[in-house]
Amino acid sequence: MLLWGCLFIMLDVLLQPEFRAASLPLHMDSVIQILAQIEQEAPILHPTVPGLLLMSGSPIDFFQHQLLSGVPSPAELQLDLLGPELRALAISLIQHRVGSGQEHGVVLAPDGSTVAVEPLLAGLQVGLHGRRAMAIPLEFRSSPSEVRDAHKEKGLTLAPQVSTTLQDVGDISLDPTILPDVHANSPTSVDNLLAVTLARALGIAFLPGPGTHTPKGLGPDGCWDEISAPKTFSLLSSESPSALTVAFLNGALDGALLGDYLSRGPKPHSPLSHILTQYYGAGVGGDPQFRSNFRRDNGAKLTSQEALAQQVWGSLLLIQELEPSHPHLVNLSQAQLAEVATQAAKEFTEAFLECPAILPRCRWEAAPYRGSPRMLNLPLGFLYVHHTYEPHKPCTSFSQCAADMRSMQRFHQDTRGWDDIGYRWGSRGNLPLYDIQKQSFVVGTDGYVYEGRGWHWVGAHTRGHNFLGFGVSIIGNYTATLPAAHSLKTVRDTLPRCALRAGHLRPDYTVQGHRQLVHTDCPGDALYRHISTWPRFGEVKKKA
Ligand SMILES: *[C@@H]1O[C@H](CO)[C@@H](O)[C@H](O)[C@H]1NC(C)=O
Ligand SMILES: *[C@@H]1O[C@H](CO)[C@@H](O)[C@H](O)[C@H]1NC(C)=O
């Protein structure tokens, strides 16, 4: 009886909005909690929940208003049901911005990635009401500034009181491959889902700023103050960073993927709180690959680089007309907009979508490096493949992979007296302690790559060769079995391709197994046999 009493008091405290808001960490679970509360207390609001939250941030702009369907009118706003504190938390979560070295409006997801909430909600809102092609009014397409001048002459102002409402020209939820005008010259419509999540933000980030010719482009990743109770997110590069951060792109991709999923899925939908719990946890719709960990692979299936370029161009055309005073867009010609869009789609595809997601050291809570690191002289000519041997079990979740990383680092630093994370020798290799092993990168089976020494610092993974190549280790014992297909693809294709593009690897780079250079069984018989079939695999030239 006493026990029950205590439990009720505890529950009571937990359910106080004030208590929750004060204690809610910036974690995806908090977003899910906010959604769940609205869904539970006002089921009738279900289709408008994301729009409702978006409006609670800043007044949504004209662009969003035109492209997000089903957004409630201000009179319908019922955010008070969240209570003042939870509402304040929602508002702070929803406004994405970067400034003073920090990024706001982002949360830590269970997969270890950081996600911007605003583009995620925009994608969900579109998904609930159907992904549509929205026609760009004809006069916008011809020559935007002329149209504007003509309107001005007639004493008309286009924005923000544009009388035109974008026309819905079709349901594209069933076959996203039939995107409008992929091959036409000038876009005649935009896909509302891609426009509100990704395309507009991409276009703006790649516009040359006023008075400068260099666009900001893709932005940095960052570090949480505390992984267990995240409150602030500091960017890894703070010199006027682009708002198109890794977290923003994660949120935009999640918004686009979940919006597409909702748009195709059977109705009525499950509550959003359930869908997000699955997507960030166990996989949506019974598909283990459809989850946040694999957002880049799934995003690549959602649209092609060419189709995305058209969407970015279309979005820029729309902003130019809807927000004529936009400082970056004044006086840009059609041809310039098309060029910006092409560049944005190319960078996004080649430097983000088709690259592995690398979690920086701070995100697996690495202990600081001991000793004095030396810089690599890039580009390098080799990629050395390792397995960790121990831990022998492939890690399939962020919490497990990050724990493996920490335990390897602890073992190597404390037990072995090494500087940093390395790998353990194979059964045959009886290596002396001075053979310090520090990997450049470690690949998990959770879809992520974990940063060890990274691209710029000399590792100690392959004795006698640490200045010549990067060491990449896959967590697990691959003596008798192979790593997951996704991990193999990362080491064979995506990681080297992106390193090549970034100038970290030489165009003629070679892949080798650790055992080719050092007396060891690493990377395990099975994995070694497999990598010896790769096109970039190279025999070691014997010294004459
Ligand atoms: C845009 O063009 C107009 C007329 O050609 C000019 O007066 C104005 O200064 C230009 N604005 C910018 C920001 O370049
Ligand atoms: C690694 O795998 C091999 C082959 O299955 C096995 O004999 C060995 O004991 C394993 N080592 C560890 C540390 O799990």
UniProtKB/TrEMBL annotation:
<dbReference type="GO" id="GO:0002376">
    <property type="term" value="P:immune system process"/>
</dbReference>
<protein>
    <submittedName>
        <fullName>N-acetylmuramoyl-L-alanine amidase isoform X2</fullName>
    </submittedName>
</protein>
<dbReference type="GO" id="GO:0009253">
    <property type="term" value="P:peptidoglycan catabolic process"/>
</dbReference>
<keyword id="KW-0391">Immunity</keyword>
<dbReference type="InterPro" id="IPR015510">
    <property type="entry name" value="PGRP"/>
</dbReference>
<dbReference type="InterPro" id="IPR036505">
    <property type="entry name" value="Amidase/PGRP_sf"/>
</dbReference>
<dbReference type="GO" id="GO:0008270">
    <property type="term" value="F:zinc ion binding"/>
</dbReference>
<feature type="domain" description="Peptidoglycan recognition protein family">
    <location>
        <begin position="356"/>
        <end position="518"/>
    </location>
</feature>
<feature type="signal peptide">
    <location>
        <begin position="1"/>
        <end position="21"/>
    </location>
</feature>
<dbReference type="GO" id="GO:0008745">
    <property type="term" value="F:N-acetylmuramoyl-L-alanine amidase activity"/>
</dbReference>
<dbReference type="Pfam" id="PF01510">
    <property type="entry name" value="Amidase_2"/>
</dbReference>
<comment type="similarity">
    <text>Belongs to the N-acetylmuramoyl-L-alanine amidase 2 family.</text>
</comment>
<dbReference type="InterPro" id="IPR002502">
    <property type="entry name" value="Amidase_domain"/>
</dbReference>
<dbReference type="InterPro" id="IPR006619">
    <property type="entry name" value="PGRP_domain_met/bac"/>
</dbReference>
<feature type="domain" description="N-acetylmuramoyl-L-alanine amidase">
    <location>
        <begin position="368"/>
        <end position="524"/>
    </location>
</feature>
<keyword id="KW-0732">Signal</keyword>
